[in-house]
Amino acid sequence: MIRSFVITPYFLESAKDNITLTNSLFEFSLVHKDDSFKEVLLLIIDNNSEFIKKYKDIASKVGGQNLRLKSFIEDFILKLNREKTDINNKNLNIDLFINDIADLKKIPKIDPQPYISFPIKEDKLKKIIQNLTQFAKKITIFDPYISQHMTNYSKTGIKQINHLIKYIDIENIEKFKISIQDSQSYKYSLRKILSLVLSNKLANNLDIKIISTIKKDDKNSFLEIIKKINNQILEIEKSQNNLNKLSLIKKKKKLYELLYSIKSELYDKNDNSIIVNKIKYIISKCFSDLGNKIEFEIINEWLKENTENRKFYKKGFLIEGDDNRQVVVDFGQGLNIYSRSEKERKIYVNGRVTRKTEHKFQLQKNPEYQIRVITNKAEKRKYSSISRFHIYEENANKIAVNS
């Protein structure tokens, strides 16, 4: 994916009197001059050495005597994205260390549009994630469906409420509560991705933010279900005769209790919406044990920029490094890169055969899941616009909890 390399000043100094070597370097720069290569080539600079100053000094020194080496340094090397680090760090994984003419033969083919489609193996996923994030200072993970699939503020919650309405006559009806859906693959997938990122020992000071949104359809569905319960209560109240029936009086009371439990999850006592903070809290708790400060934020689904309306629908990473370096990675179908499967097996309990359901998560096999580095500048701007979306504005219709 990203090709990191060190090119030592010693090597460039030795190249100035070697025409064959100089020509090879110049040809390499011509082959890789397209802007897309600058998105995947990463120059590593030693913290403890003045590499950049030395590069410039060499280019200045050779001047008109070796224009190809001068061009290689000034028009190629110095224009690459770069990261500063201790190149002697044993935890560092550098793809290429060029200090000798023999090292040039080790240069692998560089793909200007790195793309890997699922299915892939666990080991390969680990290498890809660590390769992409090794030098990151900040990572923004974005997917508009995280909130919807990780919590029951979605069709799942509506289904749960409809079930409670259907069996409202049952004693001790349970309350509705906004909660995490452990059966969904998003929680497992995000935890696996974060674990791979944080397993890198260079990630001590890494800032991680996860971004999602609240879908308008989900918000409207909850407003509709509240309206539905209110209408059922009104139907009971329409007939004074019916109010004399004990069963209907009990049903009305239980509907009120259910209504109150739903509204209490969505609004405070002053009718202000609290759903955003509630979702942020319960999702953040899913990652609190991973040791790093991981921020979860909910943003608006739409962004108006000049005359253009942008919708939050992309899924991927925005990786930031030194000197405003940005790498954008697209995950295709979504960040739920693991799927959940169920399998029944026979077990013996006290000499009797019974069945036990086992749940297992495995990497997606659907090729619509992918890991692709965005190297096209125009496309990259569309993805990176995610950082300009505003924090989610509630603008909820105020519904009195006690109404």
Report a brief summary of the structure.
With 403 residues, the chain is α/β, with parallel strands linked by helices. The chain has 13 helices and 15 strands. The protein is elongated and about 105 Å long.
Mean pLDDT: 89
Major sheet: order of its strands? 5-15-12-11-6-7-8
Report the radius of gyration as a whole number of Å. 29 Å
Count of runs of 4 or more consecutive helical residues: 13
**Overall outline:** elongated
Strand-pairing-aware structural class: alpha/beta
Low-pLDDT windows of residues? 396-403
- β-strand number: 15
In whole angstroms, the N-to-C terminal distance is 57 Å
The biggest beta sheet is recorded as: 7 strands, mixed
Kindly give the count of domains.
2
**Helical residues, percent:** 25-40%
> What is the beta-strand fraction?
15-25%
Order of helices and strands: EHHHEHHEEEHEHHHEHHHEEEEEEEEH
Explained architecture:
- With 403 residues, the chain is an alpha/beta fold.
- The protein has two domains: 3-112, no CATH class; 117-388, no CATH class.
- Helix content is 38%, strand content 22%.
- The strands form four sheets. A seven-stranded mixed sheet has the order 5-15-12-11-6-7-8. The protein has a four-stranded parallel sheet with strand order 3-2-1-4.
- A hairpin with a 5-residue loop joins strand 11 and strand 12.
- The model is unreliable at 396-403 (pLDDT under 50).
Task: Fill in the keyword field for this structure.
403 residues, 2 domains, 7-stranded mixed β-sheet, disordered C terminus
